[in-house]
Design a protein that fits this description.
Blueprint lengths: L4 H14 L15 E7 L2 H4 L5 E6 L5 E5 H4 L3
Antiparallel strand pairs: 1-2, 2-3
The structure holds zinc ion (ZN).
């Protein structure tokens, strides 16, 4: 599901506080053009409720996934 503005702001704050070199270069294209993506419900795949939040490279589409609970987004 899409993130609202408050969730995006929480995610950005968490990234800045917990990822020392954020915005880091993308491992695929080398650019630092990250933006928050969507909250992904992985329970259908694993049977375990573990929502993930996407960080999407706006240049090449590479996606990093973070534990949405750990980031405070959900
Ligand atoms: Zn990239």
């Amino acid at each position: 599901m899409p993130m609202g503005n408050i969730q995006k702001q929480k995610f950005q704050t968490w990234l800045t506080a917990n990822v020392p070199n954020y915005p880091m270069p993308c491992t695929v294209c080398g650019r630092a053009t990250w933006d928050a993506g969507e909250i992904v419900d992985t329970s259908g795949l694993s049977g375990v409720l573990a929502p993930m939040v996407q960080l999407v490279c706006q240049t090449c589409g590479n996606v990093l996934l973070f534990d949405a609970k750990k980031t405070g987004v959900v």
